[in-house]
Write a structure and sequence with these properties.
The complex is a heterodimer. Chain A is mainly β. Chain A is 6% helix and 35% strand. Chain A has one helix and six strands, in the order βαβββββ. Chain A has one helix spanning 9-13; strands at residues 3-4, 24-29, 32-38, 43-49, 67-69, 78-80. Chain A is extended and about 40 Å long. By secondary structure, chain B is of the alpha/beta class. Chain B is 38% helix and 17% strand. Chain B contains nine helices and eight strands. Classes of the chains: A mainly beta, B alpha/beta. At the A-B interface, strand 1, helix 1 and strand 6 of A face helix 1, helix 2, helix 3, strand 3 and helix 4 of B. Strand 1 of chain A pairs antiparallel with strand 3 (121-132) of chain B.
Amino acid sequence: MILYTPMQLELVVEGMEKMCAQVTRELYVGDVHMLVEDSGPGAFRVVKLLSTDPDHYLIPGFSPGQIINVNQINCREFVSV
Amino acid sequence: MSDRTNNEKQKFHDQSPEIEPDPATIPEHDPECPVDPDNPNDEGCPRVPRRVQGRSKGGSLEAIRELGASPLPEIKSNIHCLSIVGQIEGHLVLPPQNKTTKYEHVIPQLVALEQANEIEGVLIILNTVGGDVEAGLAIAEMIASMSKPTVSIVLGGGHSIGVPVACAASFSFIAETASMTIHPIRLNGLVIGVPQTYEYLDKMQDRVVRFVTRHSKVKEETFRELMFRTGELARDIGTVLIGKEAVDKGLIDEVGALGQAVAKIKHMIEEWKKGKEVPLQ
């Protein structure tokens, strides 16, 4: 990877060695297929979308890093694969 | 995993409220016992009240509503705003102190914008400190190859790999106070000390230089001169261009921000629509 940035590299990569692999799982929220990681009880954080429908990528609530609360989702829309 | 999900599902079922039917939504007559249209006195069988449960339509709009996001505006804009902020994250996930723009999310967004009928123009807001060369160039190429009008605004900063992304739009603006750092790229991590490493680095740099010179009015010699200038940056070689300087060098088209950019994109959309119209025979 070539990082092209005027920021000090030490600041950018600080803590990189402590980062560990995320524990992720795949979910369908509605018809949107996504990869999520657990974020506390009853919530998960979107890691990335796996859906192939480009329109899903325009939904603000599903952008990476967004927290989705399980209680707010209709259970029929919450299917693990 | 699946057991857990089933438990969770059951839990939600148990938690889901029993909703009393809204009298306004109950049909007056039992569907099983239709009214005789010929008999004006026949009011049909009264409907037996029963509990009904809300059912979602399962669409993505419904999902947004379920997620508690702010309500969607009724009128949708024909311009989509795409913001590219922080580090443009490449093939490695950066530590969490970095604000990042993820290319795997931005690229499908551009695909959606290109094919969505209701979107007629894309406004790209840049405040980035650069990032991965491959990811930045990928986004820049996607923007440059769009058929719809694109306008970029550099606000705050559009440094390093942010420069090609800014140039990629059909028309670019820079705020008066915004800055752009142009400097040579360098390798990080393990570098093998062989002459080929230098050649590789030079090739990678050429990709950036070629893209910028192809999509802006800057000359290659000027851009390389800016890139290798000494004495401007305290810790690096290169140049910082602020507002009008970027326009004078030909890197950006005009100084301006929101008002000018929206006016420009609206004008470009008009032109684009005219170009799309099939002339009458």
